[in-house]
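Morning!

As promised:
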Amino acid sequence: MNVHTHSYDAVIVGAGGAGLRAAIEVAGQCRAAVITKLYPTRSHTGAAQGGMCAALANVEDDSWEWHLFDTIKGGDYLVDQPAAEIMCRGAIDAVIELEHFGLPFNRTPEGRIDQRRFGGHTRNHGEAPVRRACYSADRTGHMILQTLYQQCVAREVNFFNEFQVLDIVFEEGDGGARRVAAVVAYELATGDLHVFQTKACLFATGGFGKMFKVSSNAHTLTGDGPGLLYRRGIPMQDLEMFQFHPTGIYKLGILLSEAARGEGGILRNKDMERFMERYAPTVKDLAPRDMVSRAIQTEINEGRGAGPHGDAVYLDLTHLPPEQLDAKLPDVTEFIRTYQGIEPKNEPALIQPTAHYAMGGIPTNVDGEVVVDAAGTIVEGLYAAGECACVSVHGANRLGTNSLLDIVVFGKRGGAAMARYVATATMPEPVKGAEEDVRARIETIKTTTGGEKVHDLRSRLQDEMQAKASVFRTGDSLRSCLQTVRELQAAYPKIAIDDKGAVFNYDLAEALELSYLLELAEGLVVGAEARTESRGAHSRDDFPQRDDTNWMKHTLAHRAHDGTVSLDYKPVVAGAYAPMERKY
Amino acid sequence: MTAVTEATAPASPTPGPVKKLTVHLRVKRYNPETDTKPHWEEFTVEAEPTDRILDALHTAKWTIDGTLTFRRSCAHGVCGSDAMVINGANGLACIQLIQDAGTEISLEPIRGLPVIKDLVVDMEPFFAQYRSVLPYLINTDDPGYKERHQSAEDRERFDDTTKCILCACCTTSCPVYWGNSDYIGPAAIVGAHRFIFDSRDQAADQRLDILNQRSGVWRCRTAFNCSEACPRGIKVTQAIEEVKRAILYDRV
């Protein structure tokens, strides 16, 4: 394996919305590189559909305080309120900035940015749904990704496309303090290794939904950034908080945006009953995602599920005007046509909850600096933003559209903080043999003859996580799940791959990615087993109540050198809104 | 008011094992580390009728031969990674189902870009052409701290070309591009169109100058392959025609 060395003031890993927004912020401020295992425009930000909320009040009364309240209540009070305030206040500027960048928002008849309803977003603290989501048909994420990439082209941002970052190297300082010294990347086209000496690194690698069987996530969403940091001693926060989106296409998990319900779509069980009226009488189908997913699963569990196996429900759009579907939901309706072979104007679609979004991840403060403990200790030069990070603005359940908001607000803040840091920081000394661990991992996988297949282990992981750690969980299901995950971890070193080559070896890449999924799954299950309450997306049949006395705290999962996982906790950062019962 | 009718539940098919089909995937393969020239190889896999071609490719890779190489990410037609020649026509492997494509499926790398390995081609020339058309909003007026207004009609004017996912299906279906890779290609013209016809943009003239060069829109022979190939349904040929007219008649 050839080894190349590079030197940059700052490196950004990942080129979805958060990485690109950070790249725009550091452009012209310092010598920076963006490393991405895909082409930037292939990133999964592009799959986001429905919108990005901001209290512009373009179409009806709204305020950022209402948005803040909804975000905190939606997150079941595990939200750090000062961080959420930064996001909800900053949303307005963020949307205007995207408009200035050229984003083609849908417009009102007066030419202003149009807005529509979305789950959990309400007027005046829960009175009724509010039109807060700014959107571009049902391809808002696509337009954000394209627009941010276009702005990077304008700024001549330096991309390393199809480079997979596999390790980070720290410089040890006095008293054990660490600072970023380098990242190590594997070039997919050649199999060469690249050591990027750098003062700072921002991780924006997205989620890890591929640990579940039914998922809206791309094949490439395997938690590489969190996974490699976890292995290097960075704790992971609130991994047990994993969102299931209510409306994934049956069996495939492909996302059908909440915008479908924002435009008036209705969920129905096999008897065509609008069952959400029973679960959320005020906002009905526009309740937050955790509640809707639980309602769907309850309908299924109690025998009212639809479809050939009774394990789905209907998303009904048939009562909506055809021209509204064509104008506002062209992609959603096309996905239904393509994958279910029906015309959504005439027939309802079969859907089921789909693993969608990690609320947890790399713990950061509001400037994207990675913090490793309850005291807020940072690692110099280390930043994270977007889904891979946990600020925590989403708490135990993210509201729809707040992920697009998160990536632009905290991508920008993280980039700005990183630019400030590198302006005065010195370049770390080159680390001799920085690539050796990565080289050894690759050589091991290429030479092992052990007989386990990546596909088999990954499928078993996905089946197990889906069955035992998804919408509903119990202590027993989680302990059983953990045992399986650990068996899979034990089998991992026996993985053998067919492709021993250097050029575009995706066989190898998938093996490397699986190791991160296994370790993050373990952290998720351990944290979920310990959290003896139900809060947001974490719903325990054996502990059905929220327990604010004992559990108003964030989980931090630590992974030791020998692979042992341990937990500790840090308090939720309180604010103006005291916890109250969550009714909609 | 639109009449609201209560939908009725579709009849559920009888539960039971889903019928599997035997699918023959003929893949044009090339490994630069072992092969001197491309060759065809057939994989026989089981697939459900509603599986995607991408699923069948994954079955082949994951259970038969891990060296089989192709790009993919989102698996539902929005990222643009898995463009390939499917039964002779460009498309994305993740939005075509086995029941539509049939059980005899040939897969080749998209044409006009250098093949690196199996179905993976070098995308750099394609993205370089996209970047050459100034694909970003240019407006030197200070908008202040507020949104610019744009009428719904002005927004609609360029709606079609905002859908582009840069998958290269259009460009690599173009016979002119196969013969002359200097031609900037349909996708880059679509990228330029999206800004040329955006009422907020001020650099249409610069882009039209770029597209008026020898490698620009005049290479287009209106074969319509690009429009047929676009997985997003963009009227690519029409967009190219609109750019040609804007150059000829000096107006947007």
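Chain A touches chain B through 77 residues (CB under 8 Å).

Hope this helps with the figure draft.
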